[in-house]
Amino acid sequence: MALLLIAEHTQNTLTPGTLATLTAAQSFSMPIHMVLFGKDCQKVAEKARSFKNVKKVLKVENPLLEHMVAEVATPTLMELAKDYDYILASSSTYGKNLLPRLAALLNVAQISDVVEIQGKDIFLRPIYAGNALAMVKSEDAIKILTIRATAFEKALPDLSKAAIETYAFKPPMGAVSTFVKMEESRSERPELTAASTVVSGGRGFQSKEKFALLEELADVLGAAIGASRAAVDAGFVPNDFQVGQTGKIVAPDLYIAIGISGAIQHLAGMKDSKVIVAINKDPEAPIFQVADYGLVGDLFVLLPELITKAKEILRRNKEKQ
Amino acid sequence: MKVLVTIKRVIDYSVKVRVKRDGSGIDFSGVKMSLNPFDEIAVEEAIRQKEKGKASEIVVVSIGEKDCQETLRAALALGADRAIHVKTSLETQPLGVAKVLKVLVEREKPELVILGKQAIDDDCNQTGQMLSALLNWPQGTFVSKLEVMKDKIRVVREVDGGLETLDMPLPAIVTTDLRLNEPRYATLPNIMKAKQKPLEEISAISLNVDLTPHLKTLHVKEPPKRKAGVKVKTVDELLDKLQKEAKVF
Ligand SMILES: Cc1cc2nc3c(=O)[nH]c(=O)nc-3n(C[C@H](O)[C@H](O)[C@H](O)COP(=O)(O)OP(=O)(O)OC[C@H]3O[C@@H](n4cnc5c(N)ncnc54)[C@H](O)[C@@H]3O)c2cc1C
């Protein structure tokens, strides 16, 4: 019995989602083989080798793999897949794009967004935007799972040194997509899904210019910035800031929702946060039903005050140390 | 270019779903059903391509019980030309659906298949990718921009790190994301006209596809409820609580 983990990485490091997937993988108590796709994976392979239960790191290297195109990686993965009982990846856009292809070609189901592993073939997963949790049993010999990163701790490295091997790239047959370009939304801030504090803004901000106010708060708190769909649709922030059922799932220690009404689809992405704060001028806004602390009022008045006072507190805390 | 669009009938996105008391599933009684929002975006995209002169015919397909036909009519009212209902009483899961779609694609020979990136009931986000793999066609998932060029399409994908552009030879599979377009509303005359448009019913059995679910749902429960919080009156009070109670500061 062995488990294959398809690791998403940045050439240098494994993504936080992959580290959470590793924790999920470790709970099966079986040897884990990690496969890394890319142009050059040596650096990240050096890091990937030092985790509990990881027995082998497989590098699949080819210039064609510099940017992951699902069709291009599929034949190699199919070669590999035959030898495993479990195949896991993070439920990121990377994993979601790739794993269902394997499942279809292996004629097995995929279990998406697993939040709990309850047995060797029984898993818990959210449905209906997280308004229900389904306990499902897989009837297949090979289990293919995508793992919801917020449901598992990020694995910490240990002193082990698994073997690093090269695995041959198998080129695709037939027509495939070609990568043209990537417009990265660069940011100096923490990554949204890994940040311990997230400040999120919604339609209440009215414009892109005024949304900048939220950046000030993020700077003070060292937070990542999130947004509702309405804020993304209105162009206040890029697409990958969207939190929710169909955006990113976050569960930080502190989530501050400002000018966000709290639609089911938004709540789906943040309701597992440890502490939730909401600022909204409508006392009936549904966001208050999940908020630990709700502040009713005009964000354009309250936010500047919050920024000034939070700055002051943090300055004083620093002096005390 | 012929376009095939897939349709799923789901509980309307605005409904707060209820779990049945015995934990056997979701309570569907008296609940409003609608066209899955991502499929609506898929239909809209096909219509826009037709209006631009890029698409010739739009065929919509749904797999499920008889009442799927109502949802197919909704898609016809938006502007699709023809509908196919593959009838089954089995629970539809992505793998089985992808297999049915493969058979239909081989029969209908579209050059482009547009699917929603996920259905808002099971939130699986699998079917498009599975169909692409089974057909060995290129896939563009989570698409927020689609441009039909001479013998290829160019798509922009919403991925975790930003926006990725791909060129895809045809025939191809595309799955829609929210920002691809804003679907129109069906007008009353179009709703009337839709009643006359062709809707073919096929039994899933006649397609010789194995639709047996591979996943068995043992139990459905509600997620743990968050305990009700408090309203604070001032920013000072908020900061005080965040420091002393929540200790996140
Ligand atoms: C298929 C589908 C998927 C979706 N996926 C997502 C998703 O992943 N994520 C997501 O977020 N949404 C998603 N949505 C959209 C969701 O249903 C809501 O429309 C959206 O979350 C609303 O965003 P909002 O709260 O910013 O805007 P609104 O609902 O318009 O709320 C704005 C809020 O700001 C408050 N406000 C206004 N002015 C001020 C002020 N001066 N001071 C204080 N408060 C103010 C208002 O009281 C209001 O509560 C999805 C919808 C569909 C159909």
Description of the structure:
The complex is a heterodimer of chains A (321) and B (249). Chain A is α/β, with parallel strands linked by helices. The radius of gyration of chain A is 21 Å and the shape is elongated. A seven-stranded parallel sheet of chain A has the order 5-9-4-1-2-3-10, sandwiched between helices. A five-stranded parallel sheet of chain A has the order 13-12-14-15-16. In chain A, helix 7 (264-267) links the parallel strand 14 (254-258) and strand 15 (275-280). In chain A, 28% of the residues lie in helices and 26% in strands. Helix content of chain B is 27%, strand content 31%. The model of chain B has no long low-confidence stretch (mean pLDDT 97). Chain B has six helices and 13 strands. At the A-B interface, helix 3, helix 4, strand 5, strand 7 and strand 8 of A face helix 3, helix 4, strand 7, strand 8 and strand 9 of B. Flavin-adenine dinucleotide sits between chains A (202-204, 228-231, 242-247, 259-261, 263, 265-266, 269, 280-282, 285, 298-300) and B (13, 37, 120, 178).
Structural class of chain B: alpha/beta
Major sheet: arrangement of strands of chain A? 5-9-4-1-2-3-10
First-to-last CA distance of chain B: 58 Å
What is the global morphology of chain B?
Answer: globular
> Count the strands of chain A?
16
Strand order of the largest sheet of chain B: 9-8-7-10-6-1-4-5-11
Which second-level CATH architecture of chain B applies? 3-Layer(aba) Sandwich
Strand content of chain A: 25-35%
Computed CA radius of gyration of chain A, to the nearest angstrom: 21 Å
Q: Any low-confidence stretches of chain B, pLDDT <50, length ≥5?
A: none
Biggest interface in this structure?
A-B, 91 and 83 residues
Show unreliable segments of chain A: none
How do the SSEs of chain B run, as a string of H and E?
EEEHEHEHEHEEEEHEEEH
Shape of chain A: elongated
CATH superfamily (homologous) name of chain B = HUPs
Number of helices of chain A: 8
Assembly status: heterodimer
Mean pLDDT of chain A, rounded to whole units?
Answer: 96
Number of helices in the DSSP assignment of chain B = 6
Based on DSSP secondary structure assignment, what is the total number of beta strands of chain B? 13
State the helicity of chain A in percent bands: 25-40%
